[in-house]
Amino acid sequence: MTFLSKIVASVCVAAYCLAVAAPSLSPTDRTAQFLESARNNPAALMDFLARMPKGGDLHHHLTGAVYAESYIDYAVADGLCLDRVVATLAPPPCDPAQGKVPAAQALTDFPLRNHVIDAWSIRNFVPAPDDRDVRHHFFATFGKFDPVTNKHWGEMLAEVVHRAGAQHEIYLETMLTPDQGEATKLGRTLGWNEDFAAMRSRLLAGGMAQVVADGRKNLDAGENVMREILGCAKAEPDIGCSVTLRFQNQVLRAYPKEEVFAQMLAGFELASADPRVVAVNLVQSQDEYRALLDFHLHMRMLDYLHGMYPGVHISLHAGELTPGEVKPEELLASHIRESIEVGHAERIGHGLDVLYEADVPGLLAEMAQRHILVEDCLYSHEVVRGMTGSENVLPVYLRAGVPVALATDDEGIVRSELTWYFKRAVEGYRADYPTLKRMVRDSLDHAFVPGASLWVAPENFTMVPACSNQRLETEPQSAACRNFLAGSERARLEWKEETRFSRFEAQF
Ligand SMILES: [Zn+2]
Predict the structure, then answer these.
(1) What whole-number distance in Å separates Cα of residue 491 and Cα of residue 12?
(2) What residues of the chain score a pLDDT lower than 50?
(3) Ligand 1 geometric centre to CA of 402 (Å)
């Protein structure tokens, strides 16, 4: 036996045998070495990342997560018509002479089917005179398939939780409008009042209870159909049934201020009444006119409502503006800082323009110190915004000690899945296994679920004394640990993930 063979062993996982250090290393270190060996072996890398436990997807838009092929099926089921040129949907009757064909034609007419899938996603995007920018093409997709979304939540939820489960995720927070637009209408009807308290009272007295009740009913119906499709009550349920699903009440920030306030209030009321709704989040392109114009007003609304409903979590899209997209004064307006300090965001989505905020080191230090997590939609940033390499800010946050979790944003429109985001982190930013594992653990530690953390010190993932030194089995041996987990949904999720990591790392 040579000296080299004492310290190097060959580890075979699936069809791949790679040289890694001898088994005297910890399972985590051996796994890290395997990943380094797999860097230049695409098949081994993909296999490794596909099977790696991935925690939670914290930034996920339900309508953006469903693939165009599913929306075509829904349009067929609803008997809708399809415009052959612009790929918009319309109610029947169809008129083929005017280019309005039955949606069912997209099942068998392959050129039409391809055209629709391209129009409802960024697949095969090529700039054209009337469709010049991939980002605008991306945002325009939502309006094209919108007529089929609200009626098909059950199928949509089944699709996304199945995909999450298949990729070894255990938690998903998806953004949607539970009331399907009722709050917006109520706000429009009752109008604006500068006095937030008066505005809230007027909405509460004017029908908000019905909005909340209908929102809960819509969620019930969607979840029931989802469970039916996945066979969650059957002996062999779909893998999606094992994913813990929670909802964020999205607020369309580009709408008039009275409608934005009404949507926010609906979100805070609903989250107070229904534990499945865990947070409020502002969506739509941040450079839209009203989103920019009313940004400070929106933050003050959140400040007020946070005071009224302190138990409701807030995550905000912040820092989606990039240089040249808006006036420099708008870029430098400290959107991220204000989202945190005034809007009370506990997590921010995207965070791309952090380098253009005032006092970047101070902001990063504050985020690290206050544990403000960045939901980094890495792959989406690259393909929708062309941000690659040094433009992408993942290393900036990681280096500053800011918690980060990889998230998909709109996996259907972007034609992706979470595993690819991990692949980009490894290939594009040389993320190593400890970094990936840290991001996975942070995703669950910042999930909006109740209860104490499994980590007494999340900075270095030191486990609470009750559970440290326990074997990582589904049912911990010590009563103290079992009691601790029984009292905390967050810790149960985190423990579940640690047992999965233990099984994953034992293979290397
Ligand atoms: Zn988003």
Answers:
(1) 33
(2) 1-8
(3) 19
